[in-house]
Design brief:
Number of strands: 7
Number of helices: 2
Helix content: 10-25%
Radius of gyration: 14 Å
Shape: globular
Largest sheet: 5 strands, antiparallel
Oligomer: single chain
Structural class: mainly beta
Strand content: 35-45%
Number of domains: 1
Bound molecules: zinc ion
């Protein structure tokens, strides 16, 4: 897996981009396509819903393994800030670009979550 453009790279200390109950109005983490400038979004709830499998349906098992290797997720399966790593794929319709996203999801109390966006990278293919 070769990433052509990395828009966000992982850090160990990061303020949450989403907190259940505090930032409900924020549905998505927005970023701009590096190729065409279109606005793209990462759906926070979708990352939370998939935190136990570690990936959304858009990401294949093979891509999942490659993404874990790319971001250095070891057998402990912890995201950089200590949560559960969740991978998703976001397509840019105008330029048919594809982005892989890496989020850290933490359940800090019963059914309350934080989401940290740890990686956004454009596929090199
Ligand atoms: Zn684009």
């Amino acid at each position: 897996m070769k990433m052509k453009v990395e828009i966000i790279t992982p850090v160990y200390y990061k303020k949450p981009d989403f907190i259940t109950g505090e930032s409900e109005k924020r549905k998505q983490y927005l970023f701009k396509c590096a190729a065409c400038g279109a606005e793209l979004g990462i759906d926070f709830q979708k990352q939370i819903q998939n935190c136990w499998t570690g990936k959304t349906d858009e990401v294949t098992d093979r891509e999942h393994e490659e993404l874990k290797a790319h971001y250095g997720i070891g057998s402990s399966n912890k995201s950089h800030e200590g949560g559960l790593p969740v991978f998703d794929k976001v397509a840019c319709t105008p330029c048919s670009g594809q982005y892989y996203t890496y989020s850290g999801v933490n359940e800090f109390s019963n059914s309350t979550f934080t989401v940290q966006i740890q990686g956004i990278a454009k596929d090199g293919k």
